[in-house]
Amino acid sequence: MKYVSTKEKVNYYAGLSGQNLVYSLIGASFFTYFMTDIALFPAIVVSALLIIMKVWDGINDPIVGSFIDKHTFKNGEKLRPFLKYTPLPVGVFTVLMFLVFSTREDLLWLRVAYFVIMYICWDLAYTVQDVAIWGITASVSPDSGERDKFVQWARTIGSIVYSIFSTIIPMALEMIANVTGVSIRFMTLVFAIIFGLGGAMISYRSYLAQERVRVLQSTKQESMLESFSLLFKNKMMMLVVLANLLGAVGFGGNLVTYFFKYKIPADFIPSDGIFGFIGALGLTTIYFAITGCLGFIGMMMADKLKKWFKGYVNVLIFMQAVNIVFRVIAYFVGYQGNMLWISMVIIGIGTIPLGAQSIAQTSIFCDSIDYMEWKTGKRTEGITFSMQTSFTKISSGITAGLAMLALHLLKYNAIPDAEGAVYLGTQTAAFDNWIWPLVILTPAIASLLYIIPLLFIRYTPEERAKVEADLKERREKAGTIAE
User: Fold this and answer.
1) Looking at residue 336, what is its pLDDT?
2) Are 393 and 400 in contact (CB under 8 A)?
3) Considering only CA atoms, which of 103, 106, 93 is closest in space to residue 41?
4) 451, containing H or E segment
């Protein structure tokens, strides 16, 4: 039996796309570049800010998830109503976060305080929306096969939107600012209104998805302590979270823009016509387009990879191993002259299976929710998917924080963009020597660390089938599947 209609899928995927438009401003390396080279925060301040903010995320997200798990609305839903009330505050605080009212050094304390307050407000609203929008994937259908397909398309569409806009936005922003002569600071605010507020309004459509697997009042978590105790009993989920936290050491992607700005000659891209307006942000866009687009092949092959490797855990291990091998090859190929293009293509080939990573992780999270319901009688969408949002943000914060710390240790000095500027040789010898290995090899080290916790997950396809069959029988008796 199929539960989810095509109309419902279209609305949910459209809303999810809107949410990813918002996150494309904040989740990629552009956000750290905005802080260092547009808002002009010192690199060590940015490093401290990012780490502190992500500690806040680590505290905030599980609390939000626990609240969602122990709260049920009058209509029996616990996730969907939040998708109606969170988009507007998410959009407003996104715009306010990109408002740079001054770059004066004597007002640094005020600018930092303002930024931290705006980020905390944005993060709280975004966390509630993110937990609800992904938590509902575990409740949209009681059939695990249909749910897996729903998750696969959700992750694929969300990743496509995020990847396209997180790579195009910086280049488009830079080119428009260069062509029009408008300051890049002002254009950043305009883009925040278009993609931040606009994307948040589109995300309203995810509210039209339905919660079909409901929670009995007798099995609802009664306290935050119970929610947290169930969280730490969920071994499968905790191991995936640990893998992602270990993988956060791969901060090289956050240094790509700085590499292009200070290590690649200005004439690397021909200056004829529109290409003359491409700078470091534009080269970063090209780099991520080449090294990331092939990952969409992996997304489309996710289901086949699961069958070939007998489960998504083995798929995750395989894709990390491939990434390690191809990045090491790219490092030795180098970046001098046209060799940089070859290195980009090599990295891109290595990312093909990595495209299925988010799909695999979300499917494992959904399996862990079913397993915990089978084992304890409690469904934990809120606390489980709050951990997904938590490790995503904490990992990105650690990654960005380590990148900024690396810049500080390399004695990096931000040089504001200027027309016709030549940046070669303007940084320290340590920067010149270390920026390439940091960009290319830290993600390979992260992949190696990521594999270790996955080796301890034991959940076979046979066990999954047994859990699903038992739960189906229980739900039919209890009447917890909504029409």
Assistant:
1) 87
2) no
3) 103
4) helix 429-454
Which residue shows structure tokens 């998830």?
A: 65
What is the longest distance spanned by two Cα atoms in the chain? 72
- How high is the pLDDT of residue 218? 43
Residues ≥6 apart with Cβ < 8 Å to 249: 398, 399, 402, 442, 445, 446, 449
Residues 356/319, Cβ–Cβ less than 8 Å:
yes
3-state secondary structure of 469: helix
Give the per-residue pLDDT at 217. 45
Distance CA 296, CA 411 (A): 37
**pLDDT at residue 271, as a whole number:** 59
Q: At what angle do helices 144-180 and 357-376 cross, to 10 degrees?
A: 140
Residues 58-104: tens digit of each pLDDT? 677 777 777 777 777 776 777 888 899 999 999 999 999 999 888 78
Q: What is the dihedral of CA 382, 244, 119, 138, to 10 degrees?
A: -20
Instruction: Compute the distance between CA of residue 199 and CA of residue 57 in angstroms, rounded to an integer.
Output: 22
Sequential DSSP letters for 375-444: HHS---HHHHHHHHHHHHHHHHHHHHHHHHHHHHHTT-------TT---TT-S-HHHHHHHHHHHHHHHH
CA 276 to chain centre: 32
**Global pTM?**
0.68
Residues with pLDDT less than 50, the chain = 216-219, 419, 482-483
Q: Which residues contact residue 226 at a Cβ distance below 8 angstroms, ignoring those fewer than 6 apart? A: 70
Give the integer Cα–Cα distance in Å for 37 and 258: 10
CA-based angle 10:148:295, to the nearest 5?
Answer: 80
Three-state DSSP class for residue 213: strand
Query: What is the SS3 assignment for 481?
Result: strand
Phi and psi of 124, rounded to 5°? -65, -45
Rounded to whole angstroms, the Cα distance separating 173 from 260 reads 17
Rounded-to-integer distance, Cα 99 and Cα 92, Å? 11
Neighbours of 414 (CB within 10 A): 18
Query: For residues 134 and 389, what is the distance between their CA atoms, to the nearest angstrom?
Result: 9
Q: What angle do CA 176, 292, 136 make, to 5 degrees?
A: 95
- How far is it, in rounded angstroms, from Cα 123 to Cα 81? 19
What the chain holds in terms of domains, given with CATH numbers, is 6-210+219-478 (1.20.1250.20)
Q: Are 352 and 295 in contact (CB under 8 A)?
A: yes
